[in-house]
Amino acid sequence: MLVRVVRGTAIVVTGLMAGAFCYGAINLAPTFWEVPLQMRLTFHAELMKMNSPVMQTAMLLSAVSSLALAFLSRGRRRLLAACAGALAVATFLITRFGNVPINGRIKEWAVTSPPADVVDQLQRWDFFNRMRTTTAVVALILLVITALMASREGDDPAEESGAAADGEREESAVR
Predict the structure, then answer these.
(1) Please, are residues 17 and 58 in contact by the beta-carbon 8 Å criterion?
(2) Cα dihedral angle (41, 42, 44, 48), rounded to 10 degrees?
């Protein structure tokens, strides 16, 4: 039962993280290039006020739940869950060391004026955004694969032995 709860949690929070990043990459990022620069900078700065704590929480929960699933799993499912956890951590690191510094500069530019290389820096932000979106989506795919494997092969051995023992106790109680 515990493995199922942890797996479900990992899939849900990683799905929310990947979905939010996909929405941003597919809808917001291209739109940013179609509006006047000052509008983009102002909106981007305001968006990050709410987006930062929400996405940091999603990345943390994704990493923790995926790594917990790896700890509770065996064999290939353990490897897949560990890789999903590593990808969630990579998503956080890309965000923290790629996007966040540029977000800080965007906040400044929104109230002052952007530098001459603003387009290059915004393109760099887009690159990091595509990278973290990819890592988040791949993490989700790996977690879904673990669930498909579990439904095909049965739950992890640790749980199966517990369930088998419970079933044996029930049978002996009936006799």
Answers:
(1) yes
(2) 130
The one-letter amino acid code at 49 reads K
The C-alpha atoms of residue 123 and residue 125 are separated, in whole angstroms, by 5
- Residue 75 gets the label, from left (phi > 0), alpha (psi -120 to 50) or beta, of left
Tens-digit pLDDT profile for residues 88-147: 999 999 999 999 999 999 999 999 999 999 999 999 999 999 999 999 999 999 999 999
Tokens for 106, please give them: 């965007």
Say whether pLDDT at 172 is over 50.
no
The angle formed by the CA atoms of residues 14, 24 and 10, to the nearest 5 degrees, is: 5
Cα separations (Å) of 74 from 108, 117, 146, 159, 169?
49, 50, 11, 11, 25
3 state DSSP class of 117: coil
Angle at 21 between CA 26 and CA 140, to 5 degrees: 115
pTM of the model: 0.85
Amino acid letter, residue 112? T
Write out the two tokens for 70: 């790896």
Helices first, then strands: H and E counts in the chain: 7, 0
